[in-house]
Design goal:
Helix content: 10-25%
Oligomer: single chain
Order of helices and strands: HHEEEEEEEEEEE
Largest sheet: 4 strands, antiparallel
Strand content: 35-45%
Structural class: mainly beta
Number of helices: 2
Radius of gyration: 18 Å
Number of strands: 11
Shape: globular
Mean pLDDT: 81
Strand order of the largest sheet: 1-2-3-8
Low-confidence stretches: 1-22
Distance between the termini: 34 Å
């Protein structure tokens, strides 16, 4: 429950200050800051060597940016893809995955056993974007012990 009243937004710098000024309970943060102000459903999928990466949804909030990802391994090999291998390029700036202490979202398993799949959310800092901007999502080459497999990085473009 909000106990205080925010009268001068210009003095608030970031979420931690906002929490202190309003004296919020941690659960209140979800409804105020984590709730997305924009959501885009995606149907983007790329495949290499019986391994696929799908981007399913993009959420923009005042606290972070979230991309919902699905990884599938339809081969007999084991693959590894880490959230730290994912970056976003937009308006000349690169964003890397970041740990956020607020909000709980499922993380995908980085190790994909043979014939398995995993889904999760990768979180980034708040993006400085507007309608018409193009977000490029780059997933570095997956790791595998299958020496005959030479992955290329996965690249997706999302137009806002």
């Amino acid at each position: 429950m909000i106990k205080g009243e925010l009268t001068d937004v210009d003095k608030v710098e970031g979420v931690h200050t906002l929490v202190e000024v309003l004296e919020l309970n941690v659960g209140d943060l979800d409804t105020i800051v984590l709730k997305p102000y924009a959501t885009k459903t995606l149907d983007l999928k790329q495949e290499q060597f019986d391994h696929s990466v799908s981007l399913e949804k993009l959420e923009l909030s005042y606290y972070d940016t979230r991309i919902y990802v699905k990884l599938e391994n339809n081969s007999d090999a084991v693959y590894k893809v880490y959230a730290t291998d994912v970056s976003i390029n937009v308006n000349g700036k690169t964003y890397k995955e970041h740990y956020a202490m607020y909000g709980e979202y499922p993380a995908f398993k980085p190790k994909l056993e043979a014939h398995s799949s995993t889904e999760g959310v990768i979180r980034f800092d708040v993006l400085d974007v507007k309608a018409g901007d193009v977000i490029e999502v780059i997933i570095e080459k997956p790791y595998t012990e299958a020496y005959d497999v030479q992955f290329k990085e996965y690249r997706f473009e999302i137009e806002l």
